[in-house]
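User:
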Amino acid sequence: METKLTAKDAQVALRDHVEEKALAARKRYGGTVDENVMRRMLEDRSVVRYPTRLQFDAEPLEPGEFAHARPLGGKADDGFQLFVHPMLENDPEMLPLAVAYHVVTINYGEIATHEEAEVFGSTLLGLNQEEYYQRLCALADSIPAGA
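Assistant: Predicted structure:
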C-alpha cells in the first residue's frame, strides 16, 4: 500500500524539524540565549542558514513591525539584511525574541509560517509557545506609532 503524504504532513515535518534545530542551537550555546549569543548564532550556519546582518533602522519597517528580513540579492546565498527597530538596539531582553522569530523565514522562506517562527523562537529561548507569542505581541504593541 502506497503512503500519500499531505500538505499537513509536510507542515508537521517542518515544524518538528524547526523545533529540533532550535533545541540543537540552544544546547550548542549553553542553554541561555542572550543578545551576545544571538549575534553569534547569526554567524553560525548550523543555526542561520544564510549570511544575515542586523541593521537597526525603522525606515523599511511597516507600522507596528519590530523587524523584517530582506534578501540582499536574487538568491538566498546572497544573504539577508535583518532590519530591527532601533528601540531594540539597547534592549538585550527583547532583541533575541525579535531576531529568533525571523530566523525561520531566513532559513526556510515562504513555506514557513508564523507558527514555525513561534516554535523556533520559543524553543530556542526556553519559553512555552504561548508565553513567547504574548511577549512578541507586547513587543509589537510597544513600537511607537509612525516609527
